[in-house]
């Protein structure tokens, strides 16, 4: 419950008078305010600066230092004030939290100092209000990253007892860990460079003799180039197989981008080996050789910057998509316009709209080759508009991509995403916690037997020892919820019990008929015996088992209107305590309810917990008119 | 054409545009065009400013403390405490229905308290002006906490009688009871069935409606409640709330 509305609790309780005339059950006793002294102003002296506030304000959050009795440790007898040797500036926001119910994070403060203050005063940072929460989380993340960067330099200490496979994998991933790894790293790098160079040089024309036409070197020194290619592919194959062997999860390794690049780099060679020198397929074979250029991507293992570029492009997918989309739109528009503008002129190169695409692209990117130029006046006007807009369209998304790149260069991209997911989850968790906090507090106190079905003439002794654990505010709120339960004749339960109860009632629809039938015969003996029989298993059975039995007993119990049965179990003693000759309907149901609710505790506790709940005297309980399955539900509370 | 002037305020008075240009038709047309573009681009500027002024003007100051002390049964100190809490949650001095619903819903996290809060709001808003001021609030509380049993029952009757015609019909009662059950939420034991509110209404009418005419009048209501010990006892329940 937000403490800001604590002041409205008296109003909510007063408004509960509206339920009284419709309630059929008597209401529980209201918790009394034992220490009814007038609300006083307490003085908090924080390093010399005196803050003053009402005591009630601080009591709103009883699980913090200032709201609990922990502050008595800081009480100064001579000056009759509470002295804290902490930072007074930070204390301001902490005290404001009590006043307004919202915790704010001042932007000019250091994040770790703030965290320390919160920890000192027992306030969890998750309740920082939304206006300051993003800022707080950002600063905290930066701080943690800075600490982690310092730590990472001291990491990479060799763990003992690593298998050969693990050593290999670590060597592959972090080449600077051992000299062998470094050597391997440089060797593979060298061979990648050689391979790329070979591919390039292959196509350079080197003349054999001055008067012969130029043939590319590849065709002149076929064997040499073939040997070079083979050597490189050998090295790459060996490297790939070794990585595959060392990978902790082979399947995941095979799906990773780097391994796909490796495979694509070496596959053309093998395909070329397999294929014969058939004329038909040699064309396709030549195409395959293009893929050899992918070997250059293997450099990305060697260069951090290349990897980051890849990540940037991946992360800016939306901006790139927007750039592409807007460019396409502009190209189509301008190509159409240019085509129709130039249609009139003779010998125009703008033969069709797709033909105009080339002109538009060249103009918008300000290349301006000049192979296609407009000749009409309208064409020239639109051409100039085209080039101006090209500059704009391209200039807009590019800075975003650039800033992204620089950001990622300084941070780890993957860790960011993981942490972002955690923030989102934490935020949802916060909202859920605050929502469930008050309801679970009520259910929790019910389960511990603190909320007893005392009625208005109930005893006051139990009252006293329940005050120690809950604050007055909480107990008043719980009393309000208890009144609502009594008004509607239903109980609050948590999700788990609700689902259990839901299943049970679905199951009980048929079996509930039989006990009622047999009880209508009026043989109390049978009912007694059945009940006694059923009471023995719960003590030894599991919780859900006893739950089932309790429910069956419920459906059996309700029909005995106005009859008392001497039972020889714990529940029987409760019935006897009632001393009523009146109907047992709501009374007995009141008993069994508390038993049901305390199911999570072991069954032996039932007998102890139940005596605390004397059945509510209900002489005026209206007799339920129509028997049937509905009645089972209403009275079986 | 005049030299372009840097315009910092786009919502100037449009009559300024008409003033004293005296230049060519083209200028006038351009100005109209510009004006039209401005008004199209920011259509609600004027309305929103006025709206904001209206909202800030709704600041209610309550009657003097002595007057309230005379009108209600609270002591000066109690009124001070009440007002501090009230003003803390509603700095403007009045509660409108949405704020009221929000505040009331905080006390019942498991269910939906909005319907009942709506009925409560209507019961507190005695002059039916759509907002509950501190006087309304304190008058209501005075009846509920310090009033005689007769007054409390009167208040409860007023709450149940949704259309304030002096009779509680079964439909009105069904609405009220349903809203109370709504506050329980979904996770109850036993499971809330469809017919439970209706049965509750039946029980209520059997108890209250003496002449079986299908409605409960104020006299039947008060009579019956005074004969019911439980209800009498529960009316005294919240006397020590403040």
TrEMBL record, chain A:
SMART domains hit by this protein: BTB (SM00225)
Matching SUPFAM superfamilies: POZ domain, Voltage-gated potassium channels
GO molecular function terms noted in the UniProt entry: A-type (transient outward) potassium channel activity
Intracellular or extracellular location(s): Membrane
Biological processes per GO annotation: action potential; potassium ion export across plasma membrane; protein homooligomerization
Domain BTB: 40-139
Secretion signal, residue range per the UniProt entry: 1-16
Family matches, as PANTHER family: POTASSIUM VOLTAGE-GATED CHANNEL SUBFAMILY D MEMBER 3, VOLTAGE-GATED POTASSIUM CHANNEL
Protein name, per record: A-type voltage-gated potassium channel KCND1
Species of origin: Carassius auratus
Gene that encodes the chain: LOC113072085
Automatic annotation (TrEMBL), chain B:
GO cellular component: peroxisome; voltage-gated potassium channel complex
Topology class, membrane: Peripheral membrane protein
Record's subcellular location: Cell membrane; Cytoplasm; Peroxisome
Keyword tags: Calcium, Cell membrane, Cytoplasm, Ion channel, Ion transport, Membrane, Metal-binding, Peroxisome, Phosphoprotein, Potassium, Potassium channel, Potassium transport, Repeat, Transport, Voltage-gated channel
InterPro entries named in the record: EF-hand-dom_pair (IPR011992), EF_Hand_1_Ca_BS (IPR018247), EF_hand_dom (IPR002048), Recoverin (IPR028846)
Pfam families xref list: EF-hand_7, EF-hand_8
Molecular function GO terms recorded: calcium ion binding; potassium channel activity; potassium channel regulator activity
Record domain EF-hand: where: 112-147, 148-183, 196-231
SUPFAM superfamilies: EF-hand
Domain of life, source organism: Eukaryota
GO biological process, one term: regulation of potassium ion transmembrane transport
Family indicated by similarity: Belongs to the recoverin family.
Protein name: Kv channel-interacting protein 4
Species per Swiss-Prot/TrEMBL record: Carassius auratus (Goldfish)
Lineage per the UniProt record: Eukaryota, Metazoa, Chordata, Craniata, Vertebrata
